[in-house]
Amino acid sequence: MKKLWMLLLTVVLVTGIAGCGSESENAGTEDTAINSDVSQDGEEASTTAAEVKTLKIAMVMFDWADDQGQYLQQCGAYLEENFPVEFDYITTGTDADEVVNTVQELVTAEYDGIINAMTPGFQAWSAICEENGVYYSILLNTIDEDDKAYAEGLEYFVGSAQRSDFTQLGVDFANQAIDAGLENVLFAGFAEGMLPSVDQVAQGFTQTMDAQSQVMYKKITQYPDNLFPAITAELASKGFDGIVCPVSVMDFGVGNIFANDLVGQTVAIGHNIDASTDDAMGTGVVLYLTDNLTSIVNMNYVMIANAVYGQELSGTPEGYWNIEVPSLVIDSPEKLEEYRTYVRSVDESNPTYAFDADDVALFLTYQNPEATFEDFEKYIGETTIEKIIERHAE
Q1: pLDDT tens, 210-255?
Q2: Cβ contact 271:169 at 8 Å
Q3: Cβ atoms of 160 and 116 closer than 8 Å
């Protein structure tokens, strides 16, 4: 289906080029003008004067050195190879004041857009973007109901594409532990308030565990620098047979199991693929794993690029919105193999992406002016492993 869409798009573009004649020949080589829409009676329906210049986008997160950060940078490099965009990767602190200060510095640095994974202080730092006319989106995280209500009146907030119901993810993790017959489970997360998504996972997990009596559990939270040793101390002395690792924490949990010779004694349940996942799944260390990174950088790029170029997807809603990105479930070595083949290859010479360059081109309005928000939402909402295989099969 995607190849048919791309074929039709190519025909449209070729036809447009053929009709441009000498205008195309005289156009500049660095920038490409977006064509005006023309109504059936030949009159201009609307005009977009924006140019397809090379965008400069800042991505903001608290850590780029871990596996998640490395993968997001890989997605950025992939986009740079295929589209006119350059990314800078900005490290910020974890509290609201630090995030606000980071954004304040970025809006004076002539960035076209900011993709921010750090939502603390959202109202304060979004106000800075609004005052300076800088488009921005949210990556990896979510905002609370008060922030969503505040976002309804924002002009430069282009929305988000990610999983939003992290509370249900915590419920799923708890049920997996219960169904597996675990007896004593450690929940290890980041300090409360640092990442709202982690707080929501913790809420869903603890509520579910408190409603049953067969599985004991303990919850610990720490800032990243202290989390690994805190997990080590707990696993070494408390006899846990399971560890639950929410967003961005899987690396800490699985790494501890291997480092402390707990293979066969402790299993991990968690969110986000990391560098140790392949060995962990193969040795039975990982019982249940979800992932929704699925090229969300690429999706956020679409939203910012369309806004900067002045032609949003037709039907884009006003105010706050989020496109729900499904979490992929990897609960067997076979599922992991599919993931590594079609979603996120470990072969650097042949990388794969759930939302690849062809997918991106379908929803960049300077390449496909007929693209709609409804189609974009549906396309992303169907991002399952099975659908990814169908779209990208040769």
Answers
A1: 999 989 999 999 988 899 999 999 998 778 999 998 877 787 888 8
A2: yes
A3: no
Give the tokens for residue 113. 């857009």
pLDDT at 51: 67
159: left (phi over 0), alpha (psi -120 to 50) or beta: left
Reading phi first (left if > 0) and then psi (alpha if -120 to 50, else beta), residue 324 is in: beta
CA 166 to chain centre: 13
Q: Which residues contact 18 (CB under 8 A, 6 or more apart)?
A: none
- Residue 371: predicted pLDDT: 97
For CA atoms 139, 142, 147, 151, the dihedral sign is positive
Q: Is the pLDDT of residue 119 over 70?
A: yes
Task: Assign residue 161 a region (left: φ > 0; alpha: ψ between -120 and 50; beta: otherwise).
Answer: beta
CA distance linking residue 183 with residue 177, whole number of Å? 8
Q: Which two tokens stand for residue 291?
A: 């992932």
**Could you write out the DSSP letters of every residue in 256-306?**
HHHHTT-TTT-EEEEES--TTHHHHHHTT-EEEEEE--TTHHHHHHHHHHH
Taking alpha carbons only, the member of 107, 6, 22, 4 closest to residue 60 is: 107
Q: What integer best gives the mean pLDDT of the chain?
A: 83
pLDDT value at 145 more than 50: yes
CA dihedral 209→212→213→217, nearest 10 degrees, is: 0
Gyration radius (Cα) of the chain, Å:
22
Write the pLDDT tens digit of every residue in 64-81.
887 778 888 989 999 999
Contact 231, 198 (CB under 8 A): no
